């Protein structure tokens, strides 16, 4: 220990002080090192989450700042009397499915391709990952243009086959496809690198044995790679669920920066309802309730995810 | 969104092989067949990459031409000569606020990055190498925070907290909530376990080094590559953050993302060369990092997902 000790002290006192300092160094310092995270988490994580429960049970808005306890009324209103809320869950789920299923399949195939013997490995990986440099706002700006009704290049391309210009914003299905394309474009490469990392941990002997038995590379992919990757696939699905259920910026940018998700809320996600309640209506209680309902939906989906996976594994 | 930083896969991977093993012999046997890409593989991969790059490329094309080019079909594919003029116009336009947005984003993102790396390195070291009561439980709590969408659940009270503290439009409001980052601690714990042998720490202790001294002189130097990776991922994530800055900041004090939204939906919504140029400017800092540190970013994403 380099700490200077007062030279006036006796040797005995000096050593006991050193002992205590040493004890603190061993027993106390570890807590000091991990304390910043837990302090910050308490203030900016735990406290707000708990306070959300309190807020959600009160009638509380900019217009009615005296918090009146109303029990579960906010939750009831959102679920049964505010059509936009249940629809927003349908929209969010729909976009999540459209965005996630094709994305994970393509990411698996891309990871498989990247795992082959390629020259300039890093360059390939970086090219696949490149969309990650953009922000979601930037993606929204560019893709809103690509999916534009009058001059968008998707409609231009479909026009070559005689398809009339589609107003992608107008319908539920079409707006979902456009928004999902933004999610897919930005995250596919990222997820394929996660799959690639997991593929590299699969023992090579499995493939060698399969090749000797005459399995084609397609058979090897479906019979060895995919089953071996199951834990990672489950994990990526889980993370995509959490991310997908909180979808906000893409649909907001698609709807010209508004929270209403189109003329009838056809692409309004639950996060947009939450922010709409908070910012446009200043209704804190209702917005907090929407936050908890969204959390419950995510938790249910995560549970469902594991159930389905168990069922699939059980059948094998 | 918080999903850029992903916690690990719940796998038990075989002993880490960081790179595909290079086989010295190219034989026609079984294993060579496994690794050789077919023509179809290459074509497919190139097609996917073309789709990945095209929107980025097209953004540059429009930013270097004019608004009319954005409406052409077949789409404009050759860059024009207006890039310099467009950038100058975008940066100097007082209502676009791009320079202020860049400045604010650098201050906020820089502070968050330095703090997260520091907090995570300290805590990661403690969890990896120090014995203290409750460390397992505390680490479990850290992992749990990665699974819960804190941002959304606590949004309303956090916003109200900022209102009460009169912190709207301040840096601290935009910075403080993002210092909570379980992933960083998790990642640095893995790096410490991997790159700092127990023996060195014990030897230093016998020589009388204090815990902080050990951290400073032994752990930090060994963790430098890991700190770079965590710093890069944190910087990218926070540079692109939208929702929280949108709530607590305003068009008077924008981050670059808020400024881009502002010009794309407001005054300039029909001035597409302006919008695209601004968007291009907003991704330049991350693109530069990506080009310089591509190797670290790729390995950070891949390692963060399989280490356990």
How do you describe this structure in short?
Chain A has about 325 residues and is an all-alpha fold. Chain A has helices at about 10-25, 30-55, 75-80, 85-115, 120-130, 135-145, 155-160, 170-200, 205-210, 215-230, 230-245, 250-255, 270-280, 285-315; strands spanning about 60, 70.
Describe the structure.
The complex is a heterodimer of chains A (316) and B (308). With 316 residues, chain A is mainly alpha-helical. Chain A has two domains: 11-56, no CATH class; 75-315, Orthogonal Bundle (MetI-like fold), CATH 1.10.3720. Helices cover 72% and strands 1% of the residues of chain A. Chain A has 14 helices and two strands; from the N terminus they run H-H-E-E-H-H-H-H-H-H-H-H-H-H-H-H. In chain A, a hairpin with an 8-residue loop joins strand 1 and strand 2. The longest helix of chain A is centred in the C-terminal third of the chain and has 32 residues, at 284-315. With 308 residues, chain B is mostly helical. Helix content of chain B is 67%, strand content 0%. Chain B is globular, with a radius of gyration of 24 Å. Residues 1-33 of chain B have low confidence and may be disordered. Chains A and B meet through helix 1, helix 2, helix 4, helix 5 and helix 6 of A and helix 1, helix 2, helix 4, helix 5 and helix 6 of B.
Features:
heterodimer; A: 316 residues; mainly alpha; MetI-like fold; two-stranded antiparallel ribbon; 14 helices; 2 strands; B: 308 residues; 2 domains; 0% strand; disordered N terminus
The side-by-side strand order for the widest beta sheet of chain A comes to 1-2
What is CATH's topology name of the largest domain in chain A? Answer: MetI-like fold
Quaternary arrangement of the chains shown? heterodimer
Rg of chain A, nearest Å: 27 Å
CATH superfamily of the largest domain in chain A: MetI-like
Distance between the termini of chain B: 24 Å
What is the largest interface, and how many residues per chain? A-B, 115 and 116 residues
The residue ranges of chain B in which pLDDT falls below 50 over 5 or more consecutive positions are 1-33
